[in-house]
Amino acid sequence: MLVNGSKEDVEQAVRVLEGINDLVEENPHAQAIRYVIDRWAHEYPKVVSLDELASEWRFTINMDKVIEYLESEGILPSRASEAAAPSFDLMSKLLQMFPSQKEFYTRIVKAVTGLAVARYLTDPHNRRLRMIYATLQAISAHLSEGDREPVHEIKGYSCKICGKTFSSFTEAKSHVQHEHDFEVEDEESAIEEILGRKLGEWVRLSFFCEKASLYGVSDFHKYLRYMLTKGALIPQEEDVMIKRRGGEEYIAVDEAWIRVRERMRMLERQLIRSRRAV
User: Fold this and answer.
1) How far apart are CA 45 and CA 36, in angstroms?
2) Is 267 among the domain residues?
3) At 208, is the secondary structure helix, strand, or coil?
4) Is this model's pTM higher than 0.70 or not?
5) N or C: which end of the chain has fewer CB within 10 A?
6) Could you read off the pLDDT of 226-250 as tens digits, one per residue?
7) Torsion of CA 273, 275, 276, 278, to 10 degrees
8) Is there a single domain that holds both residue 153 and residue 249?
């Protein structure tokens, strides 16, 4: 999805990986991984001198172990020699998708770091990664359920009675209360959302509760707030995260995280089928 997908697929994958990078940015091993990738990016298309990199190394983790890990995962290719780290094909492809230097350094470096870190930091005691796993598993449970309702951008609100439009729900409700109070029993039933593009999907809050508990996420509301700041969840009007719909609580999940999890599930199914065929 990150390499062979459409431009939209790449954009969504980058958004998710940026969020993962941000979640673990304080981890010292993540910082070491980011440093190597960032140095490579600044030198591209030139090769990075490992001697120079070693002289500037300020991390407790061994530099060679970081580079060997990045090579083993295909994040960096195998070194052509001990003197330099060669060019990185994945980064070259991503650079073509994001040609400006500003986007390259602010987004692609973070995204590739997020990809590397997600594979490397498998320690179950890492609180930030437990949040990621809980979120991905909650989305997976949602996808298995099959009941998928989209979340759309709300461009405004309109009064069903007179057709006037408003920028906020509060304004629309106030209008109905003052202008049409005698005509309706429930003000909200007289208000209609003006919908724009699809932003994501509504996911049952119970899925997040279950997976957060399973992965040992202790402060549930802090967890939701944190995932909101990293772009996995979509805030509603007045920064409300949880909404009651049809007697059950739901939370809006960003389309990029939905799409990436769908892709992961597809790859998981392919892997299972290939193992059965052996």
Assistant:
1) 15
2) no
3) helix
4) no
5) C
6) 888 888 898 876 566 788 888 899 9
7) 130
8) yes
Verify that 82 and 150 share a domain, yes or no: no
Query: Are 51 and 137 members of one domain?
Result: no
Distance CA 40, CA 34 (A): 10
Q: How many domains does the chain have?
A: 2
Q: How far apart are CA 16 and CA 234, in angstroms?
A: 13
Q: What gap in Å lies between CA 218 and CA 262, rounded to an integer?
A: 27
Q: Over the stretch 32-71, which tens digit does the pLDDT of each residue have?
A: 888 888 887 777 677 778 888 889 898 888 998 888 888 7
Q: Which two tokens stand for residue 89?
A: 């094909």
- Can you tell me the distance from the alpha carbon of 38 to that of 130, in angstroms, rounded to the nearest whole number? 26
CB neighbourhood size of 173 (10 A): 17
Range of the domain at 230: 130-262
Cβ atoms within 10 Å, residue 95: 18
pLDDT at 148 over 70: yes
Residue with token string 């298309």 = 45
Determine whether 184 is exposed, middle or buried from the number of CB atoms within 10 Å of its CB (0-12, 13-18, 19+): middle
Strand segments, DSSP code E, in 160-228 are: 165-166, 191-204
